[in-house]
Amino acid sequence: MKLSVQVRSSPFYVVGETIKLLEELNAFYEYDIILFDVLGDVVCGGFATPLNYAHYCIIITDNGFDSLFAANRISASVREKSNTHPLRLAGLVGNRTSERDLIDKYVESCPMPVLEVLPLVEDIRISRVKGKTLFEMAEYQENLNYVFIPREIPDRELFSLPSDFYLNVNLENPEKVMLEEQNVPSLGFTAI
After folding, report:
1. Does pLDDT of 80 surpass 60?
2. Is 108 exposed, middle or buried (0-12, 13-18, 19+ CB in 10 A)?
3. Domain of 179, in residue numbers
4. H or E element: which one contains 19?
């Protein structure tokens, strides 16, 4: 079961109150995954508090100096907290960027896995300006043909996916075998 919490306000008070609410709801024990989205530019340590409850941290950044500065602060917090908590840095995701030169320089100086670099998609910015989702825009704009609602997999086919996987396991790289059999390109994520 997953729970997603987004904290989009800078004051530490809001982060602290959110942590209290999650504790009251027993969320840290009821859910396997909690996504806690905190702005990295919180200078009062608001991003550090959720790390007390985390096992892994994924840093989302763009190719700009300010984002990488915040990523460096978060990385330092993870390093410090890992001394007393079961916390590890899973890696970095480059978000909405057409270039990655500064990201590459940063991970060269501060080694960490780059899990993925997501491209800058102008259609997303336009959809925000129009106040519509990409799905709504795709209904009347032919150039958004890459936006689609996934098909439903019939039950028999769904159940054959795991059985085919387990019957044809390659112990060296089972994910690769499964993706090759389905002709699915790997997204570049590393299993943790």
Report:
1. yes
2. exposed
3. 152-185
4. helix 12-24
Question: CA-CA distance, 131 to 122, in Å (whole number)?
Answer: 14
Q: Please give the angle made by the CA atoms of 111, 116 and 117, to the nearest 5 degrees.
A: 100
Determine the Cα–Cα distance for residues 117 and 100; give it in Å rounded to an integer.
Answer: 8
Residue 44 lies in a domain: no
pTM: 0.60
96: left (phi over 0), alpha (psi -120 to 50) or beta: left
Q: 17 vs 48, which has greater pLDDT? A: 17
Q: What is the mean pLDDT of residues 116-141?
A: 86
The total of other beta-carbon atoms located within 10 Å of residue 182's CB is 10
Residues 158 and 180 in one domain: yes
Q: What is the pLDDT of residues 51-77, one digit of tens each?
A: 888 888 888 888 989 889 888 988 988
